[in-house]
Amino acid sequence: MKLLQVENLKTTFHIDAGQVQAVRGISFHVEKGESIGIVGESGSGKSVSMLSLLKLLPDNATLTADNILFDGAQMVNTSQKAMRKMLGRDIGMIFQDPMTSLNPLFTVGEQIIEPLRIHQKLSKEAARQRAIEILRMVEIPSPEKRLKQYPHEFSGGMRQRVMIAIALSCSPKLLIADEPTTALDVTIQAQILDLMRDLKDKLNVSIVMITHDLGVIANMCNRIIVMYGGTIVEQGTTREIFYKPRHPYTWGLLRSIPQFTEGEKKKLISIPGSPPDLLRPPAGCAFTSRCPYAMKVCEKQPPQSVALSETHQAACWLMHPKAANHMREVIG
Ligand code: SF4
Ligand code: MG
After folding, report:
1. Mean pLDDT throughout 272-288?
2. How does the UniProt record describe the way this protein sits in the membrane (predicted)?
3. How far is the CA of 2 from the centre of ligand 1 (A)?
4. If both were cysteines, with which of 78, 177, 305, 326 could 315 make a disulfide (CB 3.0 to 4.6 Å apart)?
5. What span, in angstroms and rounded, lies between the C-alpha atoms of 314 and 292?
């Protein structure tokens, strides 16, 4: 069963210099209880596409889509006001930096209890009990005491646990996590990912996890969507993306995962060059200027998405039957 279905989503920012085409027609879906990862460099459109769905865009942005179906309801024209009601109740969000999303002036307890009172109409005492229960669920020790403390009294990892608690407090159907572990050190990052994995199984919530690091989602997500230059260049099951990647950009991302062998960090290979200017998006494949396999056609025409299996699609001219001749020339 599909929880979220997005078809041909486009988001444009109108600035003095012109129009920035941040998201350029993406389509994907999320099944109930499934977790998907959206991966790409900064500026690839991953956060903007999620903010578009949630109607959290600034005034200078416009959004169009053929369909945004959430739990069967059409949301293309849902107002910001109606969306705000859904946020927290049907959809929870976790951001990169919990310090900016938590209010420093209120205790953690107040920040968990308030949404419970609003969305679930719980009494004060029932909301307090529920708050204790969810702090326990995210493995925060002595929750009764912790409820009375302020965000600055928590460590970075503990603050992110609080954010997860708030996001899950009203039992949402979908949890969107935007780089939830990027600001944390590696050990804490692993603990938070473990926690999210556990909670996903326990609560049967669907998760969309946004990250620039494929390594983060390897053990967490059922499927992966790879974004580049405001488009989806490849999507497939985690297995397909890791073992049968077909897009040169995905190959680059896989090479840039840090490898730890016997405590020694291997050299990280990053993809040379920089992402396209979406004020003037390229006519052809957005990856052309950085792609070692680029052909003449890549510059002129955008590649169509090709279905490689029921779950796996990629958009690259290399999959065209005639590309084999070109590859022979490149490899020699
Ligand atoms: Fe490279 Fe061309 Fe494929 Fe784009 S379409 S990724 S430029 S080979
Ligand atoms: Mg982002």
Report:
1. 93
2. Peripheral membrane protein
3. 31
4. 305
5. 17
Compute the distance from residue 115 Cα to the ligand 2 centre, in Å. 25
Query: And the tokens for 14?
Result: 């109108």
Distance 98 CA to ligand 2 centre (A): 14
Residue 64: pLDDT band with limits 50, 70, 90: very high
Which pLDDT tens digit goes with each residue over 300-315? 999 999 999 999 999 9
For residue 305, give the nearest of 26, 83, 48, 16 by alpha carbon. Answer: 26
The two tokens of residue 27 are 């389509």
Question: Vertex 186, ends 180 and 190: CA angle to 5°?
Answer: 65
Domain(s) of CATH 3.40.50.300: residues in the chain: 2-90+172-260+269-331
Tell me if the domain spanning 2-90+172-260+269-331 has CATH number 2.60.40.10: no
Strand partners, 73: 70
- The average pLDDT across 159-184 equals 91
The model's pTM? 0.92
Q: How confident is the model at residue 194 (pLDDT cuts 50, 70, 90)?
A: very high
Stretch among 89-98, 140-149, 237-246, 300-309 having the lowest mean pLDDT? 89-98
Tokens (6 digits) for 316? 């690259």
Reply yes or no on whether the pLDDT at 291 is more than 90: yes
Q: Which ligand is nearest to the CA of 177?
A: 2
Question: What's the token pair of residue 331?
Answer: 């490899």
Interface predicted TM-score (ipTM) of this complex, two decimals:
0.97
| Ligand 1 lining (C-beta closer than 6 Å) | 247-248, 285, 287-288, 291, 293-295, 298, 303, 316-318
Helix boundaries (H) for 37-169? 46-53, 80-86, 98-101, 108-120, 124-137, 143-146, 156-168
Give the ligand 1 atom nearest the CA of 303.
5
- For residue 113, what are the contacts with CB-CB under 8 A and spacing of at least 6? 124, 127, 128, 131
